[in-house]
Design a protein that fits this description.
This protein is an alpha/beta fold. It has eight helices and 17 strands.
Length: about 250
């Protein structure tokens, strides 16, 4: 069966640009249509059921999230596109198949589409949209993209996150090996800072519910519920103390 796509973006220029890129660089993908707002975009997706959906974030007082809610339970592979890099957009990066910031380069576009094609080569279509909506509607749950797909986690099950260069290791209760995620620790920090997590070091973000003991020192260290000892930087010690007062 041919692979299909749709574009929903309120800027005609970007709809045309995406359509031309798709036609010239991925002729095996059929563009089923495009739309400039949420109502017409939702109608397009329901009628044509594309495999891949290029979806803008902010459109005439509505959002791409509004569209996702309208098309459920349909589950296209969603590639978000936006000109805005605010907090909400960075949070979305945990959930999207991929994420393109305007103005985007052909190489960035290629990478996103190739990722979608690799996913579609697998057995069946993953429940990406249900994971997206689960993360959106439940602030104690997050869908994290790793090398194998999406892992839906309860925030209370995350012990701590540690930096590994441009990657982040997510340590989870009951799991021997952490999840390796191609996102920076700073991104996790911004997404989780108001959800019970505290940055204790340049390399460590911890779930305060899993801190079992604090050992004094210049910065000190914490012992997590799984027995792991993590250093606390002197600069971030005050923030940790304030977080512990809330337990």
């Amino acid at each position: 069966m041919p692979i299909t796509a749709a574009i929903v973006d309120d800027e005609p220029h970007f709809r045309e640009l995406l359509g031309n890129l798709l036609k010239s660089r991925f002729p095996e993908i059929t563009l089923e249509g495009d739309a400039g707002d949420v109502p017409s975009g939702a109608a397009l997706v329901k009628a044509r059921r594309p495999d891949i959906l290029f979806l803008d974030i902010e459109m005439a007082g509505m959002t791409g999230f509004d569209l996702l809610k309208r098309i459920a339970p349909l589950e296209p592979l969603v590639i978000f596109i936006t000109a805005h890099e605010g907090y909400a957009v960075r949070a979305i990066k945990f959930n999207a198949l991929d994420f393109i910031v305007k103005p985007y380069s052909p190489d960035e576009f290629d990478e996103a589409v190739q990722k979608a094609l690799r996913r579609l080569d697998g057995k069946g279509r993953p429940a990406v949209l249900s994971a997206l909506l689960g993360s959106m509607t439940n602030d104690r749950q997050v869908a994290i993209a790793d090398g194998r797909g999406l892992t839906v986690l309860q925030l209370d099950d995350i012990l701590f996150c540690s930096s590994d260069d441009a990657y982040t290791l997510v340590h989870v209760t009951g799991e021997e090996k952490p999840l390796l995620v191609t996102r920076s620790l700073a991104l996790f920090d911004e997404f989780l800072q108001d959800k019970g997590f505290v940055r204790i070091h340049q390399s460590h973000l911890v779930n305060r519910r899993h801190i079992k003991r604090y050992i004094r020192g210049e910065g000190g260290e914490v012992i997590m519920s799984n027995g792991t000892n993590l250093p606390v930087s002197r600069r971030m010690k005050g923030e940790l103390m304030r977080a512990l007062e809330k337990i």
